[in-house]
Amino acid sequence: MMEISVLSPLRATVLAFVIGFAPSVLAQDQDNASSDTEEVAAEQPKQLSDETTDTLFERLMEAEEREASRIEKEITDRWAKSGSDSADLLLIRGRKALEKREIKKAIAHFSRLIAFEPDFAEGWNARATAHFADRNLGRALSDLYEVLRIEPRHFGALIGLGLIMESLDRDDDAHAAFSAALEIHPNIDGAGDGIERLKKSVEGQPI
């Protein structure tokens, strides 16, 4: 697995945070079980290729823009599958709440998901997005570091990290995050623009 050198120097910037959530949130009545399973099935991608995720990442680095978009979609679809219908349901419900701008509700769903599946990177990534929407950059950063601890190739988390660092005037760190994302996914939206925005402040004015 590719190691992302940006992580170590940035870890020191993680802000202290407190998480409050109930660990026993997955108990459900039998009457709801079948409808929940149907909801997961309706939202999950119907079919994924037989390629390994490592192979997809290798192809992503060489792909043209249109093909890269297809490969990116397959990778993110795989990231959205935890292997547990209950956990997948919490991810789906949290995302729906976030789409409706019900941010606190989304955070609650994602926190429950993390309590149930702490090694599921997409749960942390989803909650980081919700915290960012809630303008809580400290908690968003903390969650992004968990994403990258579990999946260092998570290009979406690296873009998010870059945007937060840029907003905090941490230009060198933002540039490093965008560069790491671009190294993994050369066609990813936002990385090239971010690097261009930061070019002068990072490289300095020409003499």
Overview of this structure, please?
This protein has 207 residues and is mainly α. It has a domain at 84-136. It is built from 11 helices and no strands. α5 (85-99) runs antiparallel to α6 and α8 (137-150) runs antiparallel to α9 (155-167). Residues 1-37 have low confidence and may be disordered.
Class by helix and strand content?
mainly alpha
Low-confidence stretches: 1-37
Radius of gyration from CA coordinates:
18 Å
From N to C, what is the helix and strand string? HHHHHHHHHHH
What would you call the shape?
A: globular
Question: How much of the polypeptide forms β-strand, as a percent range?
Answer: under 5%
List keywords for this structure.
disordered N terminus, mainly alpha, 207 residues
What is this structure's SSE topology?
Elements: H1 7-11, H2 30-43, H3 53-62, H4 65-79, H5 85-99, H6 103-116, H7 121-133, H8 137-150, H9 155-167, H10 171-184, H11 191-203
Helix pairs in contact: 2-5, 3-4, 5-6, 5-7, 6-7, 7-8, 8-9, 9-10, 10-11
Brief description of this entry?
This protein has helices at residues 7-11, 30-43, 53-62, 65-79, 85-99, 103-116, 121-133, 137-150, 155-167, 171-184, 191-203. It is mostly helical and 207 residues long. It is globular, with a radius of gyration of 18 Å.
